Amino acid sequence: MRFARKILVGASVAAMIGAFSINPALADKYGNRYGHQKRAKNVIVLIPDGCDESVQTLARWYKNVVLEEGDLQVDSMQGGSAKIHMANSIITGSAAAATAFATGHKTTVRFLGVGPRTDDLLPSVSPTADAYAPVASVLEAAKLAGKATGIAVTSRVSHATPAAFACHIEDRGWDNDITEHMVYNNVDVVFGGGARHLISEPYTTTFGETWGAKRTDGQNLMQVLLDRGYAFVDNKEDMAALTSGKVWGLFDDSHLDPEMDRETLHPTQPSLAEMTAKAIELLSQDRDGFFLMVEGSQVDWAGHNNDPAYMLNDFLAFDDAVKAAVDFAERNGNTIVLAFPDHNTGGMTVGNYGLSYTDLGENELLDPLKKMTCSANALVSNVASWDITGIQDALSTYWSIDCSDAVAQEIIDLEPSVGKSYALARVISKHYTAIGWTSHGHDAGTVPVWAYGLDIDGTLDNTELAYIMADAMKVDLDEITYNLYVDIKNLTDNFVIDVANDVLTVGKAVFPLGADYMVVGGRNISLPGLTVYASGDANVAETVYISKKAARILKKLRQI
Question: How far apart are alpha carbons 312 and 58 in whole angstroms?
């Protein structure tokens, strides 16, 4: 047992479990601007992680000229823009950005679904949630409103953006804990990667691969899912065959492949559009409606890599997923679709220092990208020897580039500071494409907001997007937070937090941390939300949050 802590009760139990309040400042701001403009049975939100309108511009030119398929789906949905700063930096991280539009609250870098630290806030930021305290997401709100819920991504499902919708954890790197939260948060449909964080022993797929395990606690969360009535699929054919029910479909032990490498490396993996369409098919069978979050996760990684073809192809794949969502919305007539990046990555520009700024033709822009048949990561894996000849041979074979000795040497010289794929993509972009980059990181620019079924204009804060989605579903995020997450310190001093064994004990009741049930007398009692542990810091004591339903049960049992 790590520690036992007794704390004076700071509020009456009756007051804490019998009432709730809302955040009047946010509610008033939101209600005056976007409240009640459109109510919908279904809400679909799609996020191309890490891009801005420069990427949209490049993809539009490619789709029009090379693919001859016309404009992008998002072009017909162009609306306003969103500010993206987080609580402690003008440039945001993905976890904090996702927390903002999933919950309506700014938070600290790496935090997921919890309030920000107080010791490093931007002077202009006034926190709207207590430090480390869990705040309800629009997915959790939809679930409590009786709607089906879903997530479809091309990353591990425990990655920053999906995690912010279904977990409450202070470090985005804790994939095992995040996955546990997601399992016990009862999301109906989950598609993506990351099977290794479900299991403690290797898993053999239906197509003969062996996936490694990352859990060290002995748990088999895949079996937990099966015991709870979920199907589990690991390939796109089995996903396509699904006709109803709850499902987790994880198609890799870690992340899925880039869109341009998928058919070559792992043809068993579905596209983002295929996952989106199947998720909609399954979720739309719920008569109360559904909430679905979709992420084109790897647009961001391509930006970090400064890899223009990777970024282009994954954005086009994302746009196909948006089309699948809008096609359903048009048929259904009671669905809104909202799409927006979380931030921009790489600072990509159409145009660079090597060009005359008013002289760029279609061929000059698009021909180099047409010839890139794989991502820089995949190309690097096929470099026979990391020397001038090896790099030149791989570039000739996979990107049809006749690379000079000087440029190959520039790649070699840069590699020790940024890595092979970053060096290769960055240097090749500079010398052999019309694409420019400003960094390998995020930037602070506003991002576009695209919408179907909503009128969005002007510049929003990204926190407002959460309240727009919540209002469309007729749910109150603040009310749900106050009903799902009550600080145990405000209820009783009769508790023990045992971090080593991941449990909270309150008298005779035991709460597994990160789960949706309590145990009393050997009997499991279902709860409406997770029991959330918050470790705190030098300024904030560690604690645990339980639901008001749990508090009422404890009071009835005379444990508080």
Answer: 7
